[in-house]
Design a protein that fits this description.
It is built from 15 helices and 22 strands. By secondary structure, the protein is α+β, with helices and mostly antiparallel strands. It has two domains: 277 residues, no CATH class; 165 residues, no CATH class. The radius of gyration is 21 Å and the shape is globular.
Length: 503
């Protein structure tokens, strides 16, 4: 029987890519990798090939899930510090107010291409070149600017993406005006870069011609990433972090990443709530759990010299001691064989820089201040991340893949959707649609609750800030489900324009 899949991704280009590789003999992993590579082309300003990615995979018929850490790494091998890094600060109202560091000196060692290639090699069915082909073709033909990029870019066009001539040229029309949602975007040279990566594999990115061009640009314009950093980069495969919720065995991103540990702790402390519809008491408990866990994260994990150890301490405290078995984009895929693959990628808010002659927009992950508050990391160490791509199996054969973009709202969005889906017995789309809240720790030690206007709140002893229903602030969950009888479901989040497909 031909394998079928359910896909939830940021846009129709990505879901089309996923369905195409399935018709060519692929399964959940092939579809997820093709969809994410295409997303990296078609969501400019949101995500890029020169960023990082995590993938959590539960292969059909396998007893355990794994997470591949293809996130960005700290530069510094082979001559870091020989010059002052070229950086500048950007202050924007995006995401309720963000201050970031941009420029070539904010760029970390990219890991996404290496990570996705490893996922494809180990668990995919198709050759690498076939899963890269859809992204290459979209890059060559051009694509329409989507709603997520169209929402983000106006906040930072001049301050973040206007200083580099190549980056600016990709976002300007022939008449010199900034492109808007629905306009055609063609990023010069990006299709040729993808063709090289397809033909030569990830080596092109880390030891080949692309690596040399990237390293030379870094040296010329005040970046920290060296040829040695690129050559030494390796993705890491870890047992996925286990947490049980209702009848589901969920597996997510383990430490040293922060997101999966925070999600697992919040789900554990939430317990079996809600028991159906969310009650005022359930919502009050939700706020208390988020406040408790996010405070531990802010005050202990973020500032620890050893963040992995601090994350494991949190998990032990909530009874999971044995569980070791801006911008982001997420793809979820399940297939009728019972396989599940969830991939989340980020390149921070973007450095604003494009590597000359490649079309590669560079990350600013060193400049994400909220994730770089602790002790400096050793060169080669993968950076901290909120990302928590998650998969799950149920004893009756159902399989789930889920994840979200949204910075520190990733974990709270997933907590609420998963609780509604499992404990609350909501349908997949209903669980995603339900109004959300997020406990936000403000600089200076104050705490407030951000909540959508249509979410009834009990009386709280905290400041409350209301957002419009289905606000993009609260993430963009993408979820897929295969039922015990082989039925396929996919749910996109109305908070962030996305696409779903079954085929």
């Amino acid at each position: 029987m031909t394998t079928r899949v359910a896909v939830a991704a940021p846009n129709g280009y990505a879901t089309d890519a996923a369905l195409r590789v399935v018709t060519e003999g692929g399964g959940a992993v092939d579809a997820a990798v093709a969809a994410m590579l295409t997303t990296m082309v078609t969501e400019p300003g949101i995500v890029s090939l020169a960023g990082g990615a995590f993938a959590t995979v539960w292969p059909a018929g396998e007893p355990a899930a794994v997470t591949v850490d293809g996130y960005v790494a700290m530069p510094g091998l082979g001559g870091r510090g020989r010059r002052e890094p070229s950086v500048h600060d950007v202050v924007t109202d995006y995401g309720a107010g963000v201050t970031m560091t941009a420029g070539l000196g904010s760029v970390a060692v990219p890991g996404a291409v290496a990570g996705l290639a490893l996922v494809q090699e180990r668990w995919g069915h198709l050759p690498w070149r076939e899963v890269v082909a859809p992204a290459t073709e979209v890059a060559r033909a051009g694509f329409t600017l989507g709603a997520a990029s169209g929402y983000y870019l106006p906040y930072v066009r001049d301050s973040l993406f206007g200083w580099d001539p190549q980056t600016r040229a990709a976002l300007e029309g022939p008449d010199g005006r900034w492109l808007e949602t629905g306009d055609l975007v063609v990023v010069d040279d990006l299709a040729d870069t993808l063709a090289t990566v397809a033909a030569d594999g990830p080596a092109a990115f880390y030891t080949g011609g692309l690596a040399a061009v990237l390293a030379d640009d870094m040296a010329a314009r005040g970046g920290l990433v060296t040829a040695e950093d690129l050559a030494a980069y390796r993705p890491v495969v870890r047992p996925a972090l286990a947490v049980d919720l209702g009848a589901w065995r969920l597996r997510t991103n383990p430490p040293p990443a922060i997101g999966g540990a925070v999600l697992a702790a919040m789900l554990t402390l939430l317990g079996d709530r809600p028991r159906g519809e969310w009650t005022p008491d359930d919502v009050a408990h939700l706020v208390a759990v988020q406040r408790q866990v996010l405070e531990v994260r802010r005050e202990r994990i973020d500032l620890a010299d050893d963040r992995a150890a601090a994350a494991w301490d949190l998990l032990r405290e909530v009874g999971l001691a044995g569980a070791a078995s801006p911008s982001t984009a997420h793809v979820s895929v399940v297939d009728t064989d019972g396989g599940a693959c969830a991939v989340t990628s980020s390149y921070g808010y973007g450095s604003g820089a494009t590597v000359p002659g490649t079309g590669l927009w560079l990350n600013n992950c060193l400049g994400e201040r909220e994730l770089n508050r602790g002790a400096p990391l050793a060169p080669g160490t993968h950076l901290a991340s909120n990302m928590a791509p998650t998969v799950g199996l149920r004893a009756d054969g159902a399989a789930l893949a889920i994840g979200s973009p949204g910075a520190d709202r990733i974990t709270t969005a997933l907590q609420q959707v998963l609780a509604s889906l499992t404990n609350g017995r909501a349908g997949l789309q209903a669980a995603v649609d339900r109004p959300r809240l997020h406990v936000h720790h403000v600089d200076g030690g104050e705490v407030r609750v951000d909540a959508e206007e249509d979410l009834p709140l009990p009386r709280l002893d905290l400041e409350v800030r209301r957002h419009h229903p289905h606000s993009m602030y609260f993430g963009g969950v993408a979820a897929t489900l295969v039922t015990p009888d082989g039925g396929l479901q996919a749910a996109g989040d109305p908070r962030r324009a996305g696409a779903v497909a079954v085929g």
